[in-house]
Structure formats: C-alpha cells, structure tokens
C-alpha cells in the first residue's frame, strides 16, 4: 500500500492515499457551518494520526522501522518485518490507548472550560469547538477500534489474550474469528439502522476480511493472523531484545552471545538475518574482522551492517 509522502515525525514517515481525503470530506461536510466542518475535519485527521502514532512509536521502540499510510478506512502502521507475539500485543494496544488518553485529556480540559468560559453566555469560541471534537473523535476512535471484530485492533488484542490461555494458536484463532463474526454482524446492523452509507460500505469490507480469516482459521492452513500468535520464535525475540540493550550499552561480548542464541532459536529467515546482523556488529567491535565479514554475508543489510563491513575492509 503506497501513498503520497506528507511528513516524517520521529523518523516515522507518514503518507496518504487520495481516498483518505474523500473519507474526511464525506465525514466532515455538513457537520455544521463551514468553520465547524473544517475544525471537525482537522480533528478527524488528528484522531487517525494520534491512533497510528500510538502504534508506530511503540513499533519504533522495537526497532521495526514503521511507516504510516492514511487510506479510505482510516490509517495503517506498517513495518517490514513481523513482530513477536508480545511486541505485536503492545503495538496493537498502543493505538487505541493513545486515542483514549488524548481524548480523555481533551474531555477534562473541556469540563474546566465549561466552568469558566462557556457559562458566560457568549458565543462558543472556536478553540472550544476544536477541543470538543478532538475529545469526541479520539474517544470514539479508541473505543471503536477496541471492538473485537477483524480487522480492528480489539480483535488482535483478544487473539493474543485467548492464545495465552488456550496454548494452541489455531484454537485461539478459531475462537476469536467466531467472536469477530458476531461483532461484525452487529456493526453491519448498526450501520443499516443509522442509514450510514459509508459505514455500510466499510462493514462489507469487514465481512470480507472476516470470511477470509474464518476460512484460514477453520481450514487449518497457516495464515498471517496465525503467524502473529506463533510461539516458536519467542526465544529468538527475547535474545533480540537483550541484544538491542547490549548494543545500546556497547557490550559487544553480550551482543555476540545474543547473536548466537538468536541464530540457534531462529524460526524464520528474518530472525536469522537479524542474528547475523548482531554477530557482524559484535565481531567488528571485538576486532574479529574476518569473522564479521563472513557473518555479514547472511546479515540484514542495515546501515549498521554496511558501516561495520566498511570498517572491517579498511582495517584488514
Ligand atoms: Zn489501530
């Protein structure tokens, strides 16, 4: 999913697809006068951004190189490699939490303003309208995303919680897919009752996504949803987390040990490439240049690996 780049914040690039503007226009035009609709549109954009940055900043903490794309259903935070189960849980939860925190603070400010500004009988100032919509949009978006229906964040969170208790990821996916279908049908019914064309269109997409996941869950094949729950890679991910701390503290022997542990426990190519990345960086700093160059052939080609390779070649 590609988009037009708008800005980069804290190293996280944000881009949008033209349909995002259509979404904002459909939802905001006619809310009130021109000024009120404009303020509402700004709050909608901020609401989506706050939610996505909730996901992205936590993903950034796990060194996943996230990027944000705004699209016709809101936004998405993407990262090139998959996160471990624990990481995925916190990244997912952080989106709705960010919205609920900002919305809650804005709601609190609004109450204080109501006491001192709005009771004066004057026309409502625009900044109060802004704070009102900022709180409403963020609270709504946070709660809505916590509904346990695919593809919402709530469904992923529920997936992880069930997987913790029932041990078998496939069974967990079956249970959460069944719960999701109930909720998605409720969303569809609510959309029809509200006569919201946009929500009905979105519900159809939700139902399609649900059919796909339900098929994966009950057919027994491997799926992306299932991959997020798999536990085989957990040991390697734990070694990776320890390695990141060691790298930050320049403890190269510890980093080398974490690299070897990760290499042994790796369950996929991505983990293996990250293990070799650790080994390349550690060996370079431990002056084992030949060994570092050998590891670098299998390592993820990050900036740190390229720098290490250049250093080895210049010193050999
Ligand atoms: Zn989200």
Q: What is Rg?
A: 23 Å
Summarize the helix and strand pattern as letters: EEHHEEHHHHHHHHHHH
Described by the principal axes of the CA atoms, the overall outline is globular
Approximate strand percentage: 5-15%
Bound molecules: zinc ion
Keywords:
single chain; 316 residues; alpha+beta; four-stranded mixed sheet; 4 strands; 71% helix; 7% strand
Structure description:
- With 316 residues, the protein is an alpha+beta fold.
- 71% of the residues lie in helices and 7% in strands.
- It contains 13 helices and four strands.
- A four-stranded mixed sheet has the order 1-2-3-4.
- A hairpin with a 2-residue loop joins strand 3 and strand 4 (74-78).
- Helix 1 crosses helix 2 (34-61).
- The model has no long low-confidence stretch (mean pLDDT 86).
- Zinc ion is lined by residues 51, 55, 95, 145, 153.
Secondary-structure topology with pairs:
Blueprint lengths: L3 E6 L2 E5 L1 H11 L5 H28 L5 E5 L2 E5 L6 H32 L9 H20 L7 H14 L2 H26 L2 H23 L4 H4 L6 H15 L3 H14 L3 H17 L3 H8 L6 H13 L1
Parallel strand pairs: 2-3
Antiparallel strand pairs: 1-2, 3-4
Helix pairs in contact: 1-2, 2-3, 2-4, 3-4, 3-5, 5-6, 6-7, 9-10, 9-11, 10-11, 11-12, 11-13, 12-13
Short description:
The chain folds into three domains: 1-146, no CATH class; 148-231, no CATH class; 234-315.
């Amino acid at each position: 999913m590609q988009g037009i780049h708008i800005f980069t914040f804290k190293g996280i690039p944000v881009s949008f697809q033209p349909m995002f503007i259509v979404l904002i226009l459909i939802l905001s035009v006619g809310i009130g006068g021109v000024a009120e609709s404009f303020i509402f549109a700004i709050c909608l954009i901020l609401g989506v951004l706050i939610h996505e940055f909730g996901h992205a900043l936590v993903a950034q903490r796990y060194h996943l190189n996230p990027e944000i794309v705004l699209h016709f259903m809101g936004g998405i935070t993407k990262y090139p490699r998959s996160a471990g189960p624990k990481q995925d849980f916190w990244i997912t939860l952080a989106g709705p939490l960010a919205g609920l925190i900002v919305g809650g603070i804005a709601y609190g400010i609004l109450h204080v303003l109501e006491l001192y500004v709005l009771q004066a009988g004057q026309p409502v100032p625009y900044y109060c309208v802004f704070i009102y919509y900022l709180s409403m949009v963020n609270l709504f978006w946070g709660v809505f995303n916590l509904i346990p229906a695919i593809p919402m964040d709530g469904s992923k969170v529920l997936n992880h919680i069930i997987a913790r208790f029932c041990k078998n990821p496939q069974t967990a996916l079956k249970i959460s897919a069944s719960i999701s279908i109930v909720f998605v049908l409720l969303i569809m019914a609510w959309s029809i009752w509200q006569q919201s064309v946009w929500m009905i269109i979105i519900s159809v997409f939700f139902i399609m996504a649900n059919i796909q996941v339900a098929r994966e869950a009950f057919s027994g094949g491997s799926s992306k949803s299932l991959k997020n729950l798999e536990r085989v890679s957990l040991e390697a991910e734990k070694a990776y987390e320890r390695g990141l701390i060691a790298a930050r503290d320049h403890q190269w022997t510890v980093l080398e040990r974490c690299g070897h542990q990760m290499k042994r426990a790796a369950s996929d190519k991505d983990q293996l490439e990250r293990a070799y990345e650790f080994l390349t960086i550690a060996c370079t700093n431990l002056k084992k240049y030949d060994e570092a160059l050998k590891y670098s052939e299998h390592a993820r080609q990050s900036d740190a690996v390229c720098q290490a390779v250049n250093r080895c070649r210049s010193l050999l």
